[in-house]
Amino acid sequence: MFMLYNAVLRKFPQKLIDMMKGTKYVTTVHCINSGIIKLSLATQLLLRNAWRGSNKMKLPLEFAAQDHLGRLGIVEMGFLSLTIDKRAAEGYAAGGVLSTVLKITRGDRSSGACIAPLSFYIEEEEVLIPPLAYLERAGNPSVEFTASGHVVNVVPVTITVNQHSETIDGLIERRRFLHMGMVNNLIGEVERELQPLDLLIQTINASSANGGSSANGGSSAPDASGIAALKGTESALVIFCQSARAKCKEVRHKHTQKKNDFIQFSHVEGGLYLFCSVCTFICSVLSIKGNLLTKSRHQVVGESSPN
User: Strand (E) positions, 30-107?
Assistant: First the structure.
């Protein structure tokens, strides 16, 4: 399977790409990468040098000369398998026209993950490097003879592992942060839309408590007649505002119950449900406000028109 994963990441060979018919192994690649990152933190770095050998290795042109920025390397798009045992690398390199061994110097933050205990070939002491590692030629190639008498081309290389890769836990936590930001923003938007209704309810109640401005002063001002037209709707408005706030509270509680269960935030359905439910409330608020204003205007026009 590793050939398929690397074919997806490297986008070659084309034969394998065509055979997969669009399969990207996105989740699998992320999970493997996450495991490598975690395991690399527990990998000992007693030996700085690791090796990679191949009898069909054609070095990239980027290793031949510096570019206009002075760089002398390439980015490895796929998973990179190395070994601590030089003889194992020489064994892979022996017997080919392009017999090449990369002598790779690792750093504290670029150790890779030792997967020897998990490998079928324990004796190879395999080290796995995650995708997007940078390989830089660190010196001139040299020709060496292996213990079995084969000639190999040894190329010194330094490696820098991608420092921006995240574990699955990190990706989900970031998704959770963005998701909760959306929750709070939408709930805040609902609250802002409800505030004018709160003010309207207070005004209606105050008008009722004073006995109505029209009854006391005989005023036919637009505001007074508009409020008079809305009397009797305050109970429905109060119920609506309470239900909207209760729904927002329920949504927030649902998405903040247990931090350990934050994997639910990776589900698209949860985000769509939240978005649709809250937006429905926003639309309802806007609709009610529009209807009330229209009713108020009609009442004012009706009272001010000559008979």
Answer: 49-54, 73-76, 80-83, 100-105
